[in-house]
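Case 517 in the screening queue. Each case pairs one protein sequence with one candidate compound; here the compound is ME8. For every case the pipeline is the same: read the inputs, emit a complex structure as tokens, and attach any notable structural observations.

Predict complex for case 517.
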Amino acid sequence: MSQPTRRYITTPIYYASGDPHIGHAYTTILADVLARFDRLTGADVLFLTGTDEHGPKIEEEASRQSLSPIELCNLMAERFQAAWKTLEISHDRFIRTTEAEHKAVVTAFLERLWERGEIYEGPYSGWYCIHEERYWTEKDLGPNHSCPDCGRPVEHLHETNYFFKMGAYQDALISHIEDNPHWIVPEIRRNEILGFLRQPLGDLSISRPKSRVSWGITLPFDEDHVAYVWVDALINYLTASGAIDPGKVTGEQGFEDVSGSWWPVDLHIMGKDILTTHAVYWPTLLMGAGLPVFGQILAHGWWVVGEAKMSKSLGNVIDPLALREEFGTDAVRWYLLREMPTGGDASYTAERFLARYDELANVLGNLGSRVISMVWKYRDGVVPEALGNGLDTEITEAIRKATEAMAHYKVHEALAASMDLARIANGYVEDRQPWSQAKDPEASGDLDQTLATLTRALIVLCALFEPVTPAKMAEMALNLGLDGIPTLEESRSLELAGRRVSRGKPLFPRIEPSWAV
Ligand code: ME8
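Case 517 output:
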């Protein structure tokens, strides 16, 4: 038997300075849907998420809340994990950058760069935004010396830093992007990075003096400095892969053979805001350390509220957990993934949320309840034996479309194709009129075929919708007498005849929101 495909999928690790919001939820659910779909097609998956816990931003927030940095991180790591649990995220590993294993891998990684002559010491003079954790040059700044990204005041720094010779990898990076057209998707983001690389690429400051920032990982070659939080954070992907055993790293040893581990990452998923760090800093750091680079980056778009960017100061941050309390986890997952074309931007509105919920209730939920109640009404709850499947072609086509769209990360299209199959199945009920077939003793075989066809469609829909609405599909699987969610292949071949179905609660009940639209 052939080995299952291995897929290592990551989300960014989120700053432990703020609560999870709808933007974090979107990225994580997107990664979850892709991971679940891979598992459905038989792949062996490592799905990683976590929290980014070092740096001045965390230090400042902790002090604002009169906590120590680690107390704040413990609190926030718990909040993120609790949020992911209620949102049915199926990650295999939640990493925290304050873990001992991660600190050891960062230390080994920096040591290796140092020994390879990739790092030098030099002066740094320029502007820094703590909120974005990044440097700006004078010409980048907004009015009154503000950060061009977030508008907050920047501070002027003049200090000694260590630098990674990033500029030396500019040509290698450009060639890698040119040779691998799908390394960064969507294409607009790839072009953005190629455009950025048309300017000379500078070296990267990878340290902060402890006199200014103490909350970080001490450099192995200078104990008065800590690692720059972005370098520390990016290395999380390597830590979780198990490629580097810090106990076995000595100088050049311990980095050569990563073959027994999950390294390299197959897919890094993130918002477009942090593309440069992932598409430029990260691969060049890996090249510097002599490690294989990751397989692909998917940079998605931005959730805004109405016309405005979501921000704490505007007070318009949407809390996915509050929506979930009224409509259920699956409704939130469906809305976020169905509404945003992967890669593009989308605007959150209550109207669209309700419209998408109605689609779930009126098309998928309605199909589920009417099919199960007809099997009860006409065949005492047992799926009849029947010749042929009235929707065979439509099912094949829906699976083909969904699989192809997922392979190109067009999740919204895959979900649309799945919902279309539910619509077609509802149309099939109208065409076949099982209530008339039931009245005609001559049409008994036809009625059997109608019911068996619709049960098959529901089982296929159970598999197709599992990645996005896992909790409701688990309920539907139970109602259909299945042991669990079938793989896509099983959903087409499982024996139907004799299966006992049960009437559960409506999957997506009518809900009057507590808020006005
Ligand atoms: O940048 N719409 O963490 P972060 C869509 N710690 N996605 C959004 C969003 C929005 N309005 N707001 C946030 C960091 N996101 C670093 C990452 S990785 C080695 C270190 C999502 O907490 C999106 O994925 O600021 C974005 O890239 C990420 O949250 C930023 O999370």
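Case 517 observations:
- The longest strand covers residues 119-129.
- The chain is about 45% helix and 15% strand.
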